[in-house]
What we know:
- The chain has ten helices and six strands.
- The chain is α+β, with helices and mostly antiparallel strands.
- The strands form two sheets. A four-stranded antiparallel sheet has the order 3-4-6-5.
- Helix 4 (140-156) packs across helix 5 (161-168).
- The termini are far apart.
Amino acid sequence: xxxxxxxxxxxxxxxxxxxxxxxxxxxxxxxxxxxxxxxxxxxxxxxxxxxxxxxxxxxxxxxxxxxxxxxxxxxxxxxxxxxxxxxxxxxxxxxxxxxxxxxxxxxxxxxxxxxxxxxxxxxxxxxxxxxxxxxxxxxxxxxxxxxxxxxxxxxxxxxxxxxxxxxxxxxxxxxxxxxxxxxxxxxxxxxxxxxxxxxxxxxxxxxxxxxxxxxxxxxxxxxxxxxxxxxxxxxxxxxxxxxxxxxxxxxxxxxxxxxxxxxxxxxxxxxxxxxxxxxxx
Length: 281
């Protein structure tokens, strides 16, 4: 009987393992070469990129938020001469230097509003209105005298000092706080109302006269606003005065009338826009 030779499988297994290890080593070298610093950003680069993106997004977000807060207005500045705000909270420190125009009624106004004022009067007369101008520019000294006369009259009627002062200030601005001292304000009424015996013509009932109705509707077309409207007394600090018109410029006047804004409210919007770095256009 022949005896079969037994062969060992160990050399074959060793060779297979060797080939596997060599292949694995080559694969590792290949992938290591493909992932160099040139192809893949480092952690620090990734962080810098993320940081830059975050800052740009934040700046963009802030810009959009600021833009959303800006209120679109005509191209105007709160510092414009025709938008000077004069009231109890914003008194004049001194007289304003200006050149005057003497109206047909004998009252002075700032010469810069001569043309729009005359055009307003001419348009009214062409529409059949009969106007009487009651007041224009008043110096701070004249305003003081006007205030004192009204105050004394109320005292003489039996009111206390506090009552007389409160009653006076319903329609009479404090000295240094009157718009008439700017030369940009005019008091215009109906001649029929002004001719009534014992009447100055400056009555709330003017709103029901043709002249009062026409002025309210048409004055903004010439750059004048009804300065102390109804329902805005708490804003202006002055009772309704259908005779008191203030020049602010045509674009401003039309915008303020459409938006139902007083000069106080409009100037506040302009200042807010300016604080946000925009003129509201």
